[in-house]
Design a protein that fits this description.
Elements: E1 4-5, E2 26-28, E3 30-33, E4 49-52, E5 73-79, E6 82-89, E7 95-98, E8 112-113, E9 115-116, E10 127-134, E11 147-153, E12 157-162, E13 164-172, E14 175-182, E15 214-217, E16 235-237, E17 241-244, E18 247-253, E19 259-265, E20 269-273, E21 279-285, E22 290-293, E23 298-302, E24 304-317, E25 322-327, E26 337-339, E27 344-346, E28 354-363, E29 368-377, E30 383-385, E31 389-390, E32 393-394, E33 399-403, E34 409-414
This protein binds calcium ion (CA) (3 copies).
The site of one calcium ion has 8 residues, from loops.
């Protein structure tokens, strides 16, 4: 890359000096029933859990019903902070056991019988529907009466879904917005605000099992809920603050999901400094979603805990060509950070960059395939996709050569974007 000049667009964030209005407006929330046809609904994005069948008894399971048929399959369910075992006995009238008391014993459970779903309900595969499943609950304050539903696909997948969620509208700055609140961590409460803290590289595998509830808000009023990971999405872990322009609103959902309160507030601010002027970031947090760009890579943010799930860095060469790298996988040190009042949380992202190739062996039916993925790692540990965009156009995927121990090329090819 030729010599670079940093282009930065300064969009200063101004602190709001608005006053508190009198009285907190309450909006009722009503219950919406969830059916198997809602499986791919963006509203349920963070709550629906797909578990894969295990042929043999999973580690940790102490006991199962006796004389299991050969085609019995086990599943490990991850529901919020609970891990529970399940057992499927396939058949015309399939039976599903869930370890509802979390004692790692399935022999003391009563099975639920599934009903075959009409073909076309899910769009693919043979499905069975299990209703009125007891939800395993172990945390203080969990509602033991909570019910789950599950869909079994081709006897291979167990898809767990809530039986309902909450819906309503809220008024913010004179405009009404549809909102949906989902008990995404299956504890019978609707007020579990996200905290990413204490996450680390080892716990990433469990990211899709949230320990928080989720919020969908129709920001653009089109009746849809966009779970975008590239721009400001409309589906997010449940926050306690919502940002609208330079204004912040405190959001409080009643634990039973009966109502929601939205009230203007002025949070305490700290500063995030990523040490790179031309960066764009998307953040999830207890303070809502944030799309940050410009202002020299420094932004004022409400005090609290954040998770960055997208980074783009750009640079411009002397011929005014703009190059851009995108990070959507591992955001390194920005995966989990805190903003503290009147303090600056500093990172250094971007160049110098290191190229990295990862080889994963993928087992298919009768062969093993080596999947080689390339990425570029910035100094904050953030992992960019190997492709560079030049003036908004994706450049050809990088080439690859496989060398033998003597350095001779045994295979060469091109990587594909996947
Ligand atoms: Ca049990
Ligand atoms: Ca909950
Ligand atoms: Ca929308």
């Amino acid at each position: 890359m030729s010599k670079i000049s940093w282009a930065s667009v300064a969009i200063g964030l101004l602190m709001s000096s608005a006053a508190f209005p009198a009285g907190a407006p309450k909006s009722p929330l009503t219950s919406k029933t969830v059916t198997p046809a809602d499986l791919n609904s963006a509203v349920l994005n963070m709550a629906v859990q797909w578990e894969t069948r295990e042929e043999s008894k999973p580690e940790g399971l102490k006991a199962a019903p006796a004389n299991l048929p050969k085609n019995a399959g086990f599943f490990v369910l991850h529901l919020g902070s609970n891990t529970a075992f399940a057992l499927l006995l396939p058949g015309r009238l399939p039976k599903l056991y869930i370890d509802s008391d979390l004692d790692k014993d399935l022999s003391d459970e009563k099975p639920v019988t599934g009903k075959r779903l009409k073909s076309g309900t899910l769009g693919w595969g043979a499905g069975y529907h299990f209703t009125s499943l007891p939800a395993p609950t172990s945390q203080p304050g969990d509602t033991a009466a909570l019910k789950l539903q599950a869909v079994v696909l081709n006897n291979d997948y167990l898809i767990v879904m809530p039986t309902s969620y909450r819906m309503g509208t809220v008024e913010i700055k004179g405009k009404r917005y549809r909102i949906r609140v989902v008990d995404a961590n299956y504890n019978g409460r609707y007020d579990d605000v996200v905290v990413f803290r204490h996450r680390n590289k080892d716990s990433k595998e469990n990211d899709r099992q949230p320990t928080y509830d989720s919020l969908a808000i129709d920001l653009n009023g089109d009746g849809e809920y966009s779970p975008s990971y590239d721009a400001l999405g409309e589906v997010m872990p449940l926050p306690k603050l919502l940002r609208f322009g330079e204004d912040y609103f405190a959001l409080r959902v009643a634990s039973d999901g009966s109502e929601v309160t939205v009230e203007k507030t002025v949070p305490r601010f700290g500063t995030l400094d990523v040490g790179y002027p031309d960066a764009e970031l998307l953040l999830w947090s207890e303070n809502g979603v944030h799309q940050l760009s410009g202002s020299g890579g420094k932004w004022k943010l409400p005090e609290g805990n954040y998770c960055c799930y997208m980074i783009r860095i750009s640079t411009t060469d002397t011929k005014k060509n703009k190059y851009m790298l995108t990070c959507r996988r591992d955001t390194g040190m920005l995966t989990d950070f805190d903003i503290v009042e009147d303090k600056t949380t500093s990172f250094k992202i971007g160049p110098p960059l290191a190229a990295q190739a990862k080889v994963n062996l993928r087992r298919e039916m009768f062969r093993r395939t080596a999947v080689i993925s390339a990425s570029v790692v910035g100094q904050g540990g953030e992992e960019y996709l190997a492709g560079v965009q030049k003036n908004g156009e994706m450049q050809p995927a990088p080439g690859i050569r496989i060398l033998d121990s003597a350095g001779k090329v045994v295979e060469s090819g091109k990587l594909e974007y996947g």
